Amino acid sequence: MRGPDDRPGPPVNVRSERMPVNLASIPYLGSGLGYREELADGIAAARDEIDFVEVLADKYISQPRLLDELREIRDLYPVIPHGVGLSIGTVGPVPPDYLAGMRRVSDVSGAPYYSDHLCMTKVPGIDLHHLAPLWRTEEVLESIIGKVDTIQQTLGKPLVLETISYLVDFDSPISEPDFFHRLTERTGCGILLDLTNVYSNSVNHLFDPLEYLQRLPLDHVVQVHLAGGFWAHGVLIDGHSHPVPEEVWELLAELCRRIDLKASILEQDANLDSLRPLLEQVWRARSIMRNPVVA
Fold first, then answer.
1. Would the pTM of this model clear 0.85, i.e. be above it?
2. Which 8-state DSSP code applies to residue 124?
3. Which of 39, 173, 265, 272 is the most buried if burial means most Cβ atoms within 10 Å?
4. What's the CA dihedral at 232, 197, 267, 90 to 10 degrees?
5. Which of 242, 244, 231 is nearest to 203 (CA)?
6. What is the per-residue pLDDT across 179-213, written as a single tens digit (0 to 9) for each?
7. Residue, of 233 and 141, whose pLDDT is higher
């Protein structure tokens, strides 16, 4: 028997009238944690300490039989699906089967928005297995605007796109902040501001992270990511493996002095032996969001 979560969506990859997007209607979610199977038992037991969780959407897109697991998580916490396989910068439309999978996961999660990355993970015929930066041109911008419109129309909710870390950037005619300005102005979509990525990029490419923040359309920032990385051969790597560095906490406080941030997620994919250090960082993020003046 089909439940309300499994209702069929509209036809995919068919452009229609642009859906009005109201980021202000997204509720305050608070401070949460990236859901990882290794932490499942601890996360279930910490319901008073974690406001919401972020799940890896592609797991459920590629394995629809696991949607019952997603429903169980949703029954414990508010859930935000976070994708890695959209590859919105790839030439051509979003594959219909992938877009249909996004819709299923989005509906089952009951989330107020769906997030992925402003990047490429594929080129025709090749999976890069990497979040690669875009060559930010007028043609690429127009292509992405069309795909964002299609996705938001299909999901019936905002798409929120994440800033990525990069070791090599192209000499693009449009800067990343200007690209986000024009994309959000045309589509109404949101931004997932990965503050660790901003900090790592600023260190590796020698720019001021605060100046970068000032140039973004901060009124479209819905959520942030926080994580800790490591140094390798003189390069700061966003490894999702260590505590959030103090410089990133300072960026979070500065951001929260400027906007009413709706959601913060701590990401950690390695060194998962204990939940307690992660919860302490979730608490710290919540404290900064509530009172950034004394952070």
1. yes
2. T
3. 265
4. -100
5. 231
6. 999 999 999 999 999 999 999 999 999 999 999 99
7. 141
Per-residue tokens: 22: 């109201």
CA distance 165 to 196: 8
Please tell me the distance from the alpha carbon of residue 172 to that of residue 255, in angstroms, as a whole number: 26
String of DSSP letters for 38-56: GGHHHHHHTTTT-S-EEEE
Virtual torsion, Cα 10, 11, 16, 17, nearest 10 deg: 0
CATH number of the domain at 276, please: 3.20.20.150
Q: For residue 80, what are the β-bridge partners?
A: 54
Does the residue 180 lie in any domain?
A: yes
The DSSP line for 195-206 is HHHHHHHHHHHT
Q: CA–CA separation, 215 vs 246, rounded Å?
A: 22
pLDDT at 32 over 60: yes
Residue 10 counted as domain residue: no
Q: What is the DSSP letter of 294?
A: G
Query: Which residues are 55's β-sheet partners?
Result: 81
Flag whether 18 is in a domain: no
Angle subtended by helix axes 176-187 and 138-155, to nearest 10? 40
Amino acid at 12: V
Count the residues in the chain. Answer: 295
Give 84's contacts (C-beta < 8 A, 6+ positions apart): 56, 57, 58, 116, 117, 121, 131
pLDDT of residue 10: 42
Are 58 and 102 in contact by the 8 Å Cβ rule? The answer is no
Number of domains within the chain: 1
Name the β-bridge partners of 265. 32, 225
Closest of 56, 71, 30, 178 to residue 117, by C-alpha:
56
Range of the domain at 60: 25-294
Give the Cβ contact number of residue 288 at 10 Å.
Answer: 24
Q: In which residue are the tokens 């995919």 written? A: 12
